[in-house]
Amino acid sequence: KKIQNVFSNVWMDLLNNGKLSQIHIRSLLQGIHEKILPFLINPVRLGDFLLACYAHGGAISVLSLDGLFGLIQNHKLELPEFYKMLYALFDYKLLHSKYRDRFFILADRFMSSSHLPAYVAAAFAKRTCRLCLEAPVAACQLALAFIHNLLNRNRTCLSLIQRPKYDGSAISTDPYIMEEADPSKCNAMESSLWELEILTQHFISDVSTFSKCFREPFSLATFNLADFTNVGYTTFFEKEIGRKTKISPLAFVIPNSLFNGDASMKYWTFE
Fold first, then answer.
1. Which of 53, 190, 228, 270 has a beta carbon 3.0–4.6 Å from 142's, enabling a disulfide?
2. How far apart are CA 81 and CA 1, in angstroms?
3. C-alpha–C-alpha distance, residues 107 and 128, integer Å
4. Does residue 271 have a pLDDT over 80?
5. Residue 263 has pLDDT above 70, yes or no
6. 1 or 207, which is more confident?
7. CB 208 within 8 A of CB 149
8. Chain segment 56-115, per-residue pLDDT in tens
9. Rounded-to-integer distance, Cα 136 and Cα 232, Å
């Protein structure tokens, strides 16, 4: 007990002195959920530090989520704005972030609760789907797997892919408000995931094929997002050049001369 008390006081003094560099904070946040929180006498005391990290923005905000969710789930920290805070981090910068893979794996865990309101799941699915339209190739499959898991766990949200598709003016007629920061006010439940139809025409076959799986009946199994991490352009390139292709005929009529109708061709014969 005394060792635990000393351990807690040392960490609280270190985190509250305000002298840690961003490099140290990022390193600390990556292991805080497993290496620090379980051994503190009162882990909730770290709530203010983690909230300050979230408010910092960028990668530090992303890394602070694991610790915050641990306090909410295991130590009864009251943070009713957690999903609103998480929703705010879903932007185009995230898809190019160094911690993108880690973020989606954490977000998938955060969104796995059976008590998650349908409108929250719909908002995250719709926002992620919209981001996929401008996402780097390496992020598309990961994001689509995240969306699929959301719909699979929240069957009420399947209406988003069962509604009639929007026409060519989809963005202007879509009731969803991309700029709205509150998931409860973005009108996601009244929208549809028409973006998936566009993604079925993606120039990378793996992405287009994955997009088409939303047309199939959903099974009870969910995707393991770790299977879609560490993917880059090199991965797709090596897969494409290794793909076996059929030899396509270049002409459908076998020619019997080089130039049809040329009188000089009577001196030539082809076998």
1. 228
2. 34
3. 11
4. no
5. no
6. 207
7. no
8. 888 888 888 888 888 888 888 888 888 998 999 899 888 888 888 888 998 999 898 888
9. 9
What is the per-residue DSSP string for 156-193? GGGHHHHSPPP-TTHHHH----TT---GGGS-GGGS--
Q: Which long-range contacts (CB under 8 A, 24 or more apart) does 97-105 make?
A: 97/59, 97/62, 98/59, 99/59, 99/62, 99/63, 100/139, 100/142, 101/142, 101/225, 101/229, 101/230, 102/62, 102/63, 103/62, 103/65, 104/142, 104/143, 104/146, 104/225, 105/225, 105/226, 105/229
Locate 137 and state its tokens: 């190739």
Residue 254 vs residues 22, 171, 181: alpha-carbon distances, Å? 70, 49, 64
In the numeric block, the tokens 């349908």 are attached to: 118
Q: Rounded to an integer, what distance in angstroms lies between the CA atom of residue 78 and that of residue 82? A: 9
**pLDDT attached to residue 253:** 67
Nearest 5°: the CA angle 207, 211, 217 is 140
For 156-200, how does the pLDDT look when each residue is reduced to its tens digit (9 = 90+)? 999 898 876 655 555 678 899 999 999 999 999 999 999 998 999
